Amino acid sequence: xxxxxxxxxxxxxxxxxxxxxxxxxxxxxxxxxxxxxxxxxxxxxxxxxxxxxxxxxxxxxxxxxxxxxxxxxxxxxxxxxxxxxxxxxxxxxxxxxxxxxxxxxxxxxxxxxxxxxxxxxxxxxxxxxxxxxxxxxxxxxxxxxxxxxxxxxxxxxxxxxxxxxxxxxxxxxxxxxxxxxxxxxxxxxxxxxxxxxxxxxxxxxxxxxxxxxxxxxxxxxxxxxxxxxxxxxxxxxx
Length: 238
Ligand SMILES: Cc1cc2nc3c(=O)[nH]c(=O)nc-3n(C[C@H](O)[C@H](O)[C@H](O)COP(=O)(O)OP(=O)(O)OC[C@H]3O[C@@H](n4cnc5c(N)ncnc54)[C@H](O)[C@@H]3O)c2cc1C
Ligand code: FES
Known about the structure:
Residues 1-85 form the FAD-binding FR-type domain. By secondary structure, the protein is α/β, with parallel strands linked by helices.
């Protein structure tokens, strides 16, 4: 089940950058104790709203989904580092809920010509296409079963896109294997690539070290405060 939650959060809406996330306390009891990280998918700076789009996978997201409209939600943010926006011709590649932060990015990059490549298992998973319509210059779709767009994975279609257009930045968010594939192709073409991790987190602010990942320089990175957005070569062995 996918849910879209809009929160009145003027201070967060004022400063949030694409790629940043909020850390949401999902209930009043001790279980679950930890907040849940969710990407900021949309921002309305004038009204002071932010929107998150999330999949209900466990107790935390189920509790969040059960809240009635108008409920108060304890929400920390914006947290983490966002995407580098220095681009004239961006390509966004997303799979599954990884498309949530890319939606904010696509809107923030307008009116630059944004191309989106999105993948899902079936066409039902690609309702995202309608959400991105109107924001992107072009949208390409792959499904594992061929029920929408090209049959296969995003990285099967990507070489063709890179052959035909000169992108100057690639941004990817989704399953790790997808991001590795995207980053390899980007490296081969000499295009700078940023990826965003969606790992498990505890504190969300760099204090507990529960979210660390290995950097390619041998030093560890905290996904919550050094990321969740990284240059691909900083954290992926390509
Ligand atoms: C920076 C960041 C941004 C995120 N943005 C979004 C978003 O915009 N939309 C969205 O739907 N989700 C997003 N996530 C993932 C989201 O935080 C988890 O789905 C959520 O915490 C699950 O909480 P839960 O209590 O419902 O599930 P739990 O009960 O904690 O877990 C249920 C199942 O999901 C698995 N799981 C939990 N968290 C993750 C994870 N991060 N990656 C893979 N598997 C996991 C568990 O291993 C378990 O199998 C993001 C994560 C991060 C770190
Ligand atoms: S979640 Fe605690 S350091 Fe990242």
